[in-house]
Design a protein that fits this description.
Elements (H helix, E strand, L loop, with lengths): L6 E8 L2 H11 L3 E8 L2 E10 L8 E6 L12 E9 L2 H13 L4 E6 L2 E7 L5 E6 L26 E8 L2 H11 L3 E7 L5 E6 L8 E6 L13 E8 L2 H13 L8 E2 L3 E7 L5 E9 L18 H4 L2 H7 L9
Parallel strand pairs: 1-4, 5-8, 9-12, 13-16
Antiparallel strand pairs: 1-13, 2-3, 3-4, 5-9, 6-7, 7-8, 10-11, 11-12, 14-15, 15-16
């Protein structure tokens, strides 16, 4: 089986990079650690928000698609992204902060953890989860360049939720190929049943929750939807081994893709959800000063010769630290 170490990043869709930047940096207090472009379509921004260092396992990223319509939620989707905070007290802090910005939220308990459900302005489905009882994958380092107190800061990605019409095909890939193990089952207050799996050291940074909804239509993605979830592998050698495992299981995949900041491989599990495997390094400080991450448009070397034409197609986005 593969050797995965938790969630690496989650990539979603926004229709407006400037508004997205304002929300995730000014309200959510996250650090923009990389302002770059979608390497497969350089006409759109790719924004990475993370902890202080841009550590793997803390990245929530967005592709800007100007004409993205609304999302019609449904099956065969990544239907919830969660963000880690250090304590139950932080959950209470965020309930109050979101209320100040007229953002509705709902605080409940899930797996013995305090969690807070809410949506961003584009109806991105989000959940904050308390790490107070966490014993698994370590969290990231708080970003202090914000008015959010460090003890309440977002410090990484928590469990992602998949919504599928049939459990067995997805479960088989998680358990037999990706090295996940079944942790438990849980039920939300609305009666939603969740099958919960963990990998590596486990804990909030290494979980996948699967919701089975056979009667739902397939999700029609748009702004506020999730494009893919990426899982951590140590290095290129492990990525090569994962590729062989996928070939042996007759699962089509992208082969290795050089993203410069990490190496990747993409494949769809049987319910059609896009998974990425991504290496922990070399990281976002490869081409920028760690103290100035995200302040300018960063392009990998293989796109640098196209900088002028790329910048001409992008709407200017001021991310300089004031």
């Amino acid at each position: 089986m593969m050797e995965l170490h938790g969630i690496h990043h989650v990539s979603a869709i926004t229709a407006n990079a400037a508004n997205n930047y304002d929300f995730y940096t000014k309200i959510m207090g996250m650090r923009l650690v990389k302002k770059t472009v979608n390497q497969d379509d350089t006409s759109m921004y790719h924004l990475f928000y993370a902890d202080k260092l841009g550590s793997p396992g803390t990245d929530l990223t967005f592709f800007e698609i100007h004409r993205a319509g609304r999302t019609y939620t449904g099956n065969n989707s990544i239907s919830l992204t969660s963000l880690r905070v250090a304590s139950d007290e932080a959950i209470h802090y965020w309930a109050g902060r979101l209320e100040e910005y007229d953002i509705q939220s709902k605080e409940v308990e899930l797996q013995g953890r305090k969690v807070l459900f809410f949506e961003d302005p584009e109806k991105q489905r989000l959940m904050l989860v308390s790490d107070e009882q966490n014993e698994g994958v370590a969290a990231g380092i708080p970003w202090e360049g914000t008015d959010v107190p460090a003890e309440f800061a977002i410090i990484g990605l928590g469990p992602v939720k998949l919504t599928v019409p049939e459990l067995e095909p997805t479960e088989r890939v998680l358990l037999e190929l990706m090295g996940f193990r079944k942790k438990t089952e849980a039920q939300l207050a609305d009666g939603t049943n969740l099958h919960i799996y963990e990998v590596g050291q486990g804990g909030t940074g290494a979980e996948v929750m699967v919701e089975v909804e056979p009667g739902l239509q397939r999700e029609r993605p748009g702004r506020g939807s999730v494009h893919h979830v990426a899982f951590r592998v140590k290095d290129r050698k492990e990525l090569e081994r994962a590729k062989k495992i996928l070939y042996a299981a007759h699962l089509p995949n992208s082969g290795l893709v050089d993203r410069y900041y990490f190496q990747s491989l993409y494949f769809r599990e049987p319910n059609g959800i896009l998974f990425e495997l991504a290496t922990d390094g070399p990281g976002f400080a490869t081409d920028e000063d760690p103290d100035a991450l995200g302040e300018t448009l960063a392009l990998p070397p293989f796109l640098e010769s196209e900088r002028k034409s790329i910048e001409a197609r992008l709407t200017p986005l001021d991310t300089k630290k004031k």
